[in-house]
Amino acid sequence: MQQAPGTAENPQPSSADADGVPVFQLIDPGLVQDQYGFFADLRAKSPVWWAELPDGTRWLVPTRYEDIRLAHLDPVLRQKPDPEDDPVSDEEGGIWRVYNEHPVVSDPPKHTRLRKLLASAFTARQTERLRPRVEQTVDELLDDLARQSADGASVDLMEGLAWQLPLVLICELLGVPEDRRDVFQDWSRNARDFTGGNTHEGREAIAYRIIEVIKDLIEERRATPTDDLLGQMVQARDAEEGKLTEMELISTAFIVLLAGFETSVGLIGNGVNALLRNPEQRALVESDPTLLSGAVEEFLRFDPSLFLTNVRIAGAPTTVAGVDIRKGQAVLLSLGAANRDPEQFPDPDELDVTRATTGHLAFGYGIHHCLGAPLARMEAAIAIGRLLERFPRLRHADSPDVPYIPSPISRTPLNLLVHLN
Question: Is 36 helix (H, G, I), strand (E, B) or coil?
Fold first, then answer.
C-alpha cells in the first residue's frame, strides 16, 4: 500500500452552515502534506463540505466519486460566471488574457469551437503515428541516464526522463524547433525550484518569454505555411474570420505546450514510483508486459497528476451532491479524491495493476476531458516499459518517500532519485 508522503492532520469541521454542511479551512497544511489522507478523512465524515478561504468565501466540495463525476456533466457549472462578460482588452489584460483564452478555461460555444480545432491532432490514430519518435526519444534519454550512472551514481528520473520526454514530443507536435526550446526547460525548472528562485514574478517573466516565442513562430507560419499543429491553427485563424481570434490562437498554443507536457510528467514519475514502492506489482508487469497498458490506467487512478480541477461557477441555481446552491457559487472538484472512493474502487489505497480501472477521472470528464490523453498514455507506457526492461535492478537511491512539489492542486514528484544498476 502506498500513501503520499507526510501525515494529514485530521480535518475537523470548524462550523456547519445553515444547511448542515460541515466547513473546513481550505488553507490547511494537511491538504499539501497528504491530499489522499486528507480527503479520505473528509469523505468518512461527510459526502460534501464547504471549504472556507481566508477571506471567508466558501466553495462547495463533494468528496464522492459519483457526485464529482455528475458535477463534471452539469452544464450549469461553468469555467466562468458569464461567458459574454469579458470587457478586458488584449492590451489591458496582458498575461491574464493569455491564461484565460484557451479551451481548458472556456465554456460552450467558445469551448466547442476551440476544442474542435485541436481534436484532430490528438486522436488515437494521430497519436499512434508518433510512436516511432516516442520510442526513439525514450531510448536516447535512457542512454543519457546510463552514461550518468556509469560509475554507480544515482540519477534523477524526473530530470532525465519524466520532464524531458513529454517536452520533446509536444514541441515537435506543435512545431517548436530545438533552438527555441530553452525557455520551456526554464519553465520546468522554475516549477521545481523551491530554494527561493520560484517566485510569481519569475514564473510570469518566463511566461512572457514563451509568449514571444509563440508569436514569432506564428508569424513564421504565416510567411511559410507548415502542416504541424501550430501551422494548422494559424491557417484556421487566417482562413475564416471569427473562427479564431489572435489572442485565442496565442493562448491555445500556450496551454497546449504547457499542459501538454506537465500532465505526462506526473504520470511517468508517479507510475515509476508506484512500481518501485510495490515490488509485487512491478514483478507482475515485468513478467507480463501485456499488463502495461492496464497498469498505466491504474497509475492514473492511483496517483493522477492533477488532484484538483479548476473551480467551477454555477451559472444558475443547481444542486451538487444533494446541496442546493445559488448562481455564482463556486464548486471545487477533486479528481484524486474521486479515484480513491472505496464505493467506486475497492481497496482504493492499494496499487493493483490487474484492476479494471475504467471510469477513473484522472483526465477529467465530460466536455473538458483531456484531449492529450492518448499521447500521455502512450508516452508513459513506452517510457516505463523500456525503463524496466533495460534496468531490471532499478531501485530507489534513498527513501521511497520521494518529495513532491508542494501543491494541493497537482501530484508531481520533485525528484525521483534511483540507482539503475
Answer: helix
CATH class, 15-419 region: mainly alpha
Alpha carbon of 409 to those of 37, 146, 287, 304, 311: distances in Å? 15, 33, 35, 11, 11
Is the pLDDT at 61 greater than 70, yes or no?
yes
Q: 141-200: per-residue pLDDT in tens?
A: 999 999 999 999 999 999 999 999 999 999 999 999 999 999 988 887 777 665 444 566
In terms of DSSP bridges, do strands 312-314 and 77-78 run parallel, antiparallel, or are they unpaired? antiparallel
The pTM (predicted TM-score) of the whole model is 0.90
Residue 202 C-alpha from the chain's centroid = 21
Strand partners, 34: none
Secondary structure of residue 321 in the 3-state scheme? coil
Across the chain, how many H-helices and E-strands are there?
18, 12
From the candidates 220, 259, 286, 407, give the one annotated as an active-site residue.
Answer: 259
Give me the catalytic one of 106, 188, 264, 305: 264
The answer, yes or no, to whether residue 293 has pLDDT greater than 90, is yes
- Which grid cell is 354? 490487474
Each residue's pLDDT tens digit, 117-146: 888 888 888 889 999 999 999 999 999 999
| 191 noted as active-site residue | no
Q: How far is CA 174 from CA 63, 227, 271, in A?
A: 37, 10, 26
DSSP 55-109: TS-EEEEE-SHHHHHHHHH-TTEESSS-TT-----HHHHTHHHHHTSSGGG--TT
Question: Half-sphere exposure (CA, 13 Å, Cβ side) for 152?
Answer: 0
Instruction: Give me the catalytic one of 121, 171, 337, 370.
Output: 370
Residue 20 amino acid letter: G
Q: Is 370 a catalytic residue?
A: yes
ω before 403 within 30° of 0 (cis)?
no
**Interval 268-278: pLDDT, tens:** 999 999 999 99
pLDDT value of residue 15: 56
- Choice among 52, 379, 381, 383 that is catalytic: 379
For this structure, is 379 an active site residue?
yes
